Amino acid sequence: MSKRTSRYWILGAGIVAILALAYACQTPSQTVQTAAGTADLASRVYVPIGEWDKYYAFLSGGQSGGVFVYGLPSGRFIRNIPVYEPRAAYGYANVPGTETYEMLHASGPTWGDTHHPILSETGGDYDGKWLWINDKANSRIARIDLSKFETVAIAKIPNLQATHGIAVISPDTSYIIANGEFEVEVPPGRVDEGSYGAVMAFLDPMSLEPRFEVLMPGNNDINDSSKDGRWAFTTIYNLEGGLTVEAMIQREEDAIGAIDIHAAEAALERGEFTMVNGVKLIDPNRTTQQVLYMIPVPKNPHGCDVTPDGKYVMGTGKLSPTVTIIDISQIDKVENTRDAIAGQPDVGLGPLHTTFDGRGNAYTSLFVDSQLVKWNIEKAIAGDPTYIVDRVDVHYNVGHTQATLAETMHPTGEYLLALNKLSKDQYLPVGPTMPEAQELIDISGEKMTVLASFPSEPEPHDAVFMLASDLAPRVIQTEELTPDAVAEGASRIERVGPNEVNVYMTAIRSKYGLNEVRVKQGDKVNLRITNVETIRDMSHGWALEDYGINLALDPGQTREVTFIADKPGTHWYYCTWFCSALHLEMRGRLLVEAADG
Ligand code: K7E
Ligand code: CUA
Ligand code: CA
After folding, report:
1. Domain boundaries, the chain
2. Over its length of 597 residues, how does the chain's per-residue pLDDT go in tens digits?
3. Of 180, 261, 280, 419, which is the most exposed, with the fewest CB atoms less than 10 Å away?
4. Do 220 and 181 contact (CB within 8 A), yes or no?
5. What separation in Å is there between the alpha carbon of 9 and the centre of ligand 2?
6. Which CATH number fits domain 492-593: 3.40.50.10490, 3.40.50.720, 1.10.620.20, 2.60.40.420?
7. Ligand 1 atom having least distance to the Cα of 116
8. Pocket lining: 117 vs ligand 1, CB cutoff 6 Å
9. Choice from 302, 318, 355, 396 to test ligand 1 binding pocket (greatest atom count within 8 A of CB)
10. Alpha helices (H) along 249-349
């Protein structure tokens, strides 16, 4: 056993029991605040009424299937962007025949398990255009348009199971990489047939289609990219190829896999791939030029994070109390990839994820210790025993952690979010399952200060942040009228066939363009409705009794729905968004004449 790997705090299956025990028995680390101290903390997260937060925080929604948006530092919840679940409030995927409904249903089930939100980059900084979010459970990825915080594309990724880590290839979003965490039956073309492997997909950021995929040993957990577009990294925790927990922790070492993207692209040009389900799949064992480098790290690593300066990629230990620092510039230079390891500092128990402040410090979440540890990267590499700068207790086991703009080349080093896996007694009880908890930590000084906590629905894994000054100006105020919009005064009913009617309607405070719509039983009704408001936030809805239809309309937006008027009689439609003092009066009748007259 090497010196590096001899440092496990405990080995074997006992680890699993210890982790489970830590999870169950952890008591909160009580921070006693004086009244004055509490007031000081409160003032540091207080944002006066009418003022905006400095940051947007995008938290994955976990098994809620969407993305939660908060303002920081206040922790005010401002939006739940629906992605893999329908949401009537925003007219998202809730009515058959509408665009978003068809998009979601074509991709798979109407639920998801989202883990990692990532933001588009230009020149290594966030450009505020797109956010991508994975669905681990159904191997999907979605793209959200940040000009309106709406999901605009969803795709199922072929040939892999459990899209776990996803990352933008920096600095210009040349690809989105998506990890297949679970091992799949090795596709045709694999040398060692009969075994399991895993697949990493390199997706077109816009179409979400794989430009190619790479076959990997073991599995793929969390990923990241170098800052120069050259390398894709992933942690791998099951080089054993184990099918049980015990089998997955047999070996002392697993790995970080480093894919040389340029070498992979060259392999594609040379035709060194197999087509599998319409995707070019590269087997790194069969390329002329080396595509995959495996760097040994202590067993079952989890987090995979590249420093903002692009020098190092770090594998965070999980079962080992260490973070492994890999010098990216050495990966393809050294004879033995072990020699690319620049350092392996001890940080504490159960380290899961590492983030950065851009001032040379790393922050690692400690699941077992329920702590954040701040450490100096160059000191740790130099073997300077004073590399630990600070430790701070959080309440209950922390999973992901992310510092402001830490994924870019210019972190602001201002706040850090600890995404806790449990909250227990932090909030009012709401049943046996408690709200999830996030804790906001000020990292602007030498010492960290836990400022506040705020709850969420289950269950954020990761978060990313944008400066409000970068994103808020990009958010549109109203939708632009599309060519097919119904113009003010142009509401009408057109019979286009013996059993088909087109209905064109406008919505504006506080009435619809049509007070009544008269059709015959059995008619196919094609409704197009435009919210012709021209000012921000004047939303209207169109909900129809008995027909299960509820459209939501942003200012300027046009929506279409088709239904069969199969129920005779009077059916009221009404506006679901409170829009004026006459909101309740904003309604009309669908009159369906019975077929028998
Ligand atoms: Cu650590 Cu899915 Cu990012 Cu959860 S993973 S913690
Ligand atoms: Cu329109 Cu309420
Ligand atoms: Ca392992």
Report:
1. 14-45, 492-593
2. 333 333 343 333 444 444 444 444 444 444 445 666 788 999 999 999 999 999 999 999 999 999 999 999 999 999 999 999 999 999 999 999 999 999 999 999 999 999 999 999 999 999 999 999 999 999 999 999 999 999 999 999 999 999 999 999 999 999 999 999 998 887 555 545 557 889 999 999 999 999 999 999 999 999 999 999 999 999 999 999 898 999 999 999 999 999 999 999 999 999 999 999 999 999 999 999 999 999 999 999 999 999 999 999 999 999 999 999 999 999 999 999 999 999 999 999 999 999 999 999 999 999 999 999 999 999 999 999 999 999 999 998 999 999 999 999 999 999 999 999 888 888 999 999 999 999 999 999 999 999 999 999 999 999 999 999 999 999 999 999 999 999 999 999 999 999 999 999 999 999 999 999 999 999 999 999 999 999 999 999 999 999 999 999 999 999 999 999 999 999 999 999 999 999 999 999 999 999 875
3. 280
4. yes
5. 62
6. 2.60.40.420
7. 3
8. no
9. 302
10. 261-269
Q: Which of 501, 517, 566, 513 is nearest to 540 (CA)?
A: 513
Say yes or no: CB of residue 251 within 6 Å of ligand 2.
no
Could you give the residue ranges of the DSSP H alpha helices within 339-396?
A: 377-382
Backbone angles phi, psi at 42, to 5 degrees: -60, -40
Closest Cα to atom 2 of ligand 1: 115
Closest ligand 1 atom, CA of 115?
A: 2
The number of beta carbons lying within 10 Å of the beta carbon of residue 22 is: 16
For ligand 1, atom 6, the nearest C-alpha belongs to 399
State which ligand 1 atom lies nearest to the alpha carbon of 419.
Answer: 6
Q: Which two tokens stand for residue 324?
A: 């492994």
Ligand 3 center–CA 170 separation, angstroms: 29
Query: Using a 6 Å cutoff on CB, does residue 421 contact ligand 1?
Result: no
Answer whether 58 contacts ligand 2 (Cβ < 6 A). no
The neighbour count for residue 260, using CB atoms within 10 Å, is: 21
Strands 516-520 and 587-593, bridge-based pairing: parallel
Candidate of 352, 402, 421 to mutate for ligand 1, largest count of ligand atoms within 8 Å of Cβ: 352
CA dihedral 516, 519, 521, 527 (to 10 degrees): -80
Q: Is the pTM of this model over 0.85?
A: yes
Query: With contact defined as beta carbons under 8 Å apart, do 449 and 442 qualify?
Result: yes
Please give the distance, rounded to the nearest whole angstrom, from the Cα atom of residue 491 to the centre of ligand 1: 51
- At a CB cut-off of 8 Å and minimum separation 6, what does 36 contact? none
If you take atom 5 of ligand 1, which residue's CA is the nearest one? 461
Closest ligand (CA of 247): 3
